[in-house]
Amino acid sequence: MRWLLALLLFILAACNTGGPGFGGIEPERVSQDGSSFLFRRTGPLIEAQRISPEMMPRFQTVATKAGRAAEARTGCDVAWIMGDQAVMMMALDCPGGPPPPKMPRTQNWSCHAITASRAITDALVSSDISLNCTRG
Description:
Radius of gyration: 20 Å
Strand order of the largest sheet: 1-2-3-5-4
Structural class: alpha+beta
Mean pLDDT: 83
Strand content: 35-45%
């Protein structure tokens, strides 16, 4: 039982560590428009982890807040933001600095669900879901 508790504590301790390329960098806590983030910066890249609890946040809303916070902290423009509502990566375009790195190509799929439902009885409905997916 002790090993299970130790494993759980180890996993929880790793929840706010930096991602690939950002490990070992001390985070800076930043707040913007009601959202809080941990920023880790290496060169022209910033990793932002949202640490504030929010009810079903949309990526566009959270990314806008993180981008504004990065611009206010660095004095640089944000060239691009990618990620999800919890963890984002941003490239900075600083005056007099090197150009920002190009956005990495994603290996993600975007899928749209197509649902067809039919009543079997008054209380039972059968639903078929098919996915229409594109890479990008």
